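Researcher: For the record, we're logging two predictions in this thread. I'll number them. Prediction 1 follows.
Model: Prediction 1, sequence and structure:
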Amino acid sequence: MSDRESTSHAIGAASLCAALLIAQQVGAKTTRDTLFLENFDVSLLPRTLAAAAVVTVVFVLGAGRLIARFGPARVVPAALVASGVLQLGVFAWARVAPAPAAVGYYLLVAATGALLVSGFWSVVNERFDPRTARRSAGRIGTGATFGGLAGGVVALVAGHAVGAQWLLVLLAALHLVAAVVVHRFGRSGSTSADEENEPGPVGQGWQVLRRQGFVRDLAVIVILLTAGAACLDYVFKDFAQQRFGDGTQAIGLVTFFGAFHTGSALLTFLLQSAFAPVLLRHAGLARTLATLPAGLALGAVTLLLVPLWPVAAIARAAESGLRSSLFRSAYEPLYTPLAPDEKRASKSLIDVGGERFGDALGALTVQVLLLALPVTAPGETLHTILLATTAITGVLGLLMAVRLHRGYIDALERSLMRQHVKLELDEVVDTATRTMVLRTRPADPDPATEPEPPRPSPPTEDPVLKTVEGLRNRDAKVVVRTLAASTPLAPELVGHVVPLLAWDAVAETAIESLRHTGPRATGPLLSALLDEAEDFSVRRRAPRALPDHHEPWVREALLRGLEADRFEIRFQCGQALARHHVHDGTAVARDRIMDHVRREVAVPDTLWRSHRLLDGQDRGPRFVDSPAVRKAPAGLRHVFCLLGLVLPHEALGLCLEGILTRDPQLRGTALEYLDGVLPADVRQQLWPKLEVAERTPRPAAADPDSALRTLMGSRERIRTLLSTQSDESTEPPQS
């Protein structure tokens, strides 16, 4: 048999195995829930779920050691055989002691279900080379989807015919057959554990969580959503037990859960095939991932308003379908910025620790409520609290998803620029990642314009090397002449000019040279701005060297620069944003700017008065230019510059000039305008910086518009007063 035929047969066997495993998993969930609720009240579910979380962690740690030592191709078939035998043992146990057997099977499914599926994918990754594995993932995934549907249908039909206990025999057979298939297609792969697929050590996973903020956010999202799903699951199963658990209905629990899991599998298939590719391509990873918290919150609120068992089933099925389709499609690519060893370590920690901690947290919430609520309290009270908790976790998950997007983009850009990860465009499914790959990859040469290899010729002096030599000269006059002759800079020279921003004697010339170079200098300048290890002089001067025309990603980098520890870096980033805003009128998120304003005005007065501009080159806010404003405190100029990004900048400029006058009437009118346009907490913190008491009397203006009209009519008077004050201190006097 040729290698191609062998690979094709192996992919077919892997698809069959995926179908068997997912069919078994869906049937096992039906059997697990049925056996438990037939023998116990739903109030015992939280304690069982917490115990299952502990057992799962123990099993996973043990399985990780075995896989690392013997390889998944040997461990997974043996684990499948052991699972099949244990399920037959549970069947025999259930014939004589159904209640303990139900608990034992719940723990067995929790400990082995996801673990065996994860081990199967390790065998796939070890059996095929990376390119074949990527290309075969769709075919294998189709087998898994078909298996989920088939498993639900078989559980529904067989469970209704013979009961939940006899389903254990069928489920054991599925695992035994899967063991044979895994052994056959996995044995031709590597016989030792593939280092790229071994789970990383837990300690390394914690290090990744400490270093990578977006990974921490992802872990928090997983914990929140798992805890919320556990609360929703309790309410759903309580409805199911009340409706179908008394034996008086035409269908029993096994039929109900079989139909439920079949519907969930069908919903997963529809969402994955119809919506996942479109959402990933147009909405991006974070928004696609946010569909799960949104669906979780919406389902909980709907069930609060319409507390009926069909609504509970729909809400729980929607959560399950979204988690297994859209959420999972966005979740896996979010690890792209991480190196392979970091990915293995952190993903293992989040998948195992995060989900199990979320299960335990949800179970603890339910158990505490069961103990805290009076015995006479109606079940509706417990349901209301749990559903409200679920809705809150969904909303928090949505907020975390917004933050996750920014962290993911930043981490991906750093990884691509430093070549920690390498991506091909055909591997990328979402727009944000494709954009970052295109932005950071070197341009491919055009074969049509690529010059022929040069013929041997006498050695000549390289003009680029000569220019670099001039830029590195210790004589400032030589450097200035070289910059003047080289502007606009060639791409290979930009990296040699950016460090010159730290040299006071040539910094202004370097700034002009970089600014006239245009977009090709933008990337290195922003990298220097955001690099905390870079020289402070380079960082504070980099925003001044940027061109006035900014792309959205440049504006985002400047907004991040507003978070710097040093005031002058923040000041210069604000000036660059103001230049862009005045030039193009591009809107900036109001809430984000107001958060930066709050940070600036919250500093102690001593620190506020110590703000200085070391270069002394920049003027005031770009929307106002007068001697009085240029002499105003740097902190005040920076705050009004930021406010001008989200408020009418001409009005802000006139207002600042009015505040700087010594005329009480004009100052009061300017303050009246600020009263109407600033949030209360910003105004309360800004007033002391203006040396104004909160209750300072001001003219009775009907509204901010009236105050602004008064200021506009007094423009000439304000300019005259400021002109007479230009040689005096412009510190705002006491009102």
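Researcher: Logged. Prediction 2.
Model: Prediction 2, sequence and structure:
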Amino acid sequence: MRPSGHVEVSARLLSAMLREREFGPRATLLAQQASELVAGGGAIVYMLDLGHPPDIPRTWVAKAIVGEISLDEPIVPADSGTLGTLAQEQQPLLFSGNELTREDYAHLHARRTLVSLACVPIIVNELLVGALEVVSFEDTIDSSDLQILIDLVENAGPGLISGKIYEDERNSLLESVSRLTQLYDLEKVFSSTLEMDEIQSLITSKIREVLDVQAVNLWLVKDEQEILLVNQSGDDPTAFVGTAQRTGEGYVAQVSDSGERVLIADEEDERFLKRNPLALEDGPFSAIACPLVAHEKLVGVVECINPMDDEPFDDDDLFLLNSISESAAIALNNAGLLQAERKVEILEMLVTVSQEITSTLNLERVLQTIVNAPQAVIPYDRAAVALEQGGKYKLSAVTGVTQIDPDAPDIAPLNDILRWVMFSEEVVHVRQHGDEIDAPREETRAKFKSYFEASGMQGFYGVPLTDDTGRVGVLGLESHDPDFLLPAHLEILQVLVGQATVALRNAQMYKEVPFISLLEPVLQKKRRFMAMEKWRRTLTIAGVVAVAIFLAGFPLPLRVDGDAVAAPVRSARIQPEQEGVVSKVYVREGDHVTHGQVVADLADWEERAALAKAQARYQTALLQMNRSLATNDTSEAGVQRIQADFWKSEVARDQELLDTTRLRSPIDGVVATPNVENMVGRRLQYGDSFAEVLDASRAIVDVAIDDSDAGLLRTGSRAWVKLNSYPTRTFTGNVMVVSPRGTVQGDSRVFFARVAIPNSNGVIRAGMEGRGKVRAGWYPAGYVFFRKPLLWIYSRAWSWFGL
């Protein structure tokens, strides 16, 4: 041993340890100081792992190794050799090489003959927390050397423990920051889509990934008494998608009824025995469940089964799941609102389609509407209708086909399959996934296997059209996507099939009504003409010829007219991006505003407070990071860098939220909402309208032209409008757009000629009504005078004879 005063050695050690904050460097300093006392040996610092839970055997964990010594394994059983003796006696031990066998220090990797071995316990607050082991292969360690080691350990022990506490606090802080980052990332992931199926899958998979569990179940409220399992990530043999729990049937229903979260850590809990009565393998031994509440309304319950580390859940896991559940509940609520909005859109479109089907008795038009119009709400690739006429089958309409050839290569397979569906007299819904065809009967599977190979389709839905008087025909829909029909689409089809059956039956009956009675008045007029005197007949014939020449050769301007309604070229509603109370209004009705101009403010003290708080925390994190960098504490600087980045993103988000409290005009125009200044103090919800802005610099007048005259409309045609508000004034403009889609108005269908009229003085206001005329060109006088009755006669003749 090298002689040295132990006071000097301890002082040097403590001085070096004060320069380090973490346990590892401090343990290394202690080992280095101890190894300097021996020649040809080394020192090892151990920490005693107490084990968690207590039934796990304790172990010594090597934290620092210095000198000519090493370990075969860094973890040594607590009762092993000399270290085991130290754990029992908790007193300093000194051994000579002659006293020990190789098994006593088997944990050491020693290829030289051991001369001395000293073990000194590290005891803090009367608790054994570690040990210092010093080995010498050349000199003998005596009692004075041992005393120096004891003094070193007594002085360094509190420093080691404080370093350990510092590391634990730092790791805890890093874990907290990591969890905050995970929660922030989860919130962004959950808000990345509004599709319900995608949201459900994201929630279960992400929660399973964060908590590292065997399975995550997502239950949604079905009604007041029942909750339904709608999505599952992982394997839970005691529950599957579609499982339902009613009140009193399980702990998930209990969470739904009470709104309180549940933690079950005992696999013998009676709730598990009720959940898994057959004692299935991989059944739950620990579970946590949290309610999903959005806007004070219960959406469902999220449940986690069995941690993957085989340890039961604890309160920290329950707290983390509850934190995630808040974002998940909001995402599910938003997806539900989108679904409800889509259902409203589907119902509106269904009403429109129904009106088109029932608005005419023209069989061809009804057929084309049935195969084409539903495509707006049902995602099929092709639809077809076959009718039964006089006991005979006939393919009558196919999507996108005007002239049907039943023997065409792309039509023939469809024609055969529709004939088979019609005579089967039942709904046929067949889907192909890979090589598997989903159909109950072998005959159906065989028939559709060949049909799908020929047509390239993978999904087919066929339904017979029948009413009280018998069979009308059959409707078939097909798609390249086997799952193109969702439950909502099947509900729509039930309504559509009933209306289509009635419309087709009425159109068939109307087509078969005889019109022989129309010829009787013509025969009577002929008899009266032949009974007239000759000169009268001649004069009458000459007059008719003159009128015919006039009607056939003299050109007159043709104008088509209809009701007119004035509208602004552009209008926009000012709506809040968040809920809030109107605090200030800067405009009144009739005020001119520009794009982006602030028209009102919502109460924003909460947003300003949140922004100030985030900015303060961001600056604090930056200051602490710079301070750590200045002291060369890179680990602390890294922690503060993470904190600073987090609060920087919060500052940006809070600034965006603050900006949304200012209501701005989306366009240049005039405020059209009356008494808008009285909105102060009113609370606005999502979707509420604060005010409407109209661009009145140019007016658009919609002239409703009847369906029969729509073919005469041309873009750029001259038009004249007379409004009820200005009975002596005629406004002139040009047709800007002819609406590509008709609208039912009263008992007829109209198309709108949108006439652009200068309105620099603002006399034309939105909503003014009147009458409009559009020039259609120059035509013979007969065509101008008798166009409508001639067209009516032609349409009747065409429907009778097909000419």
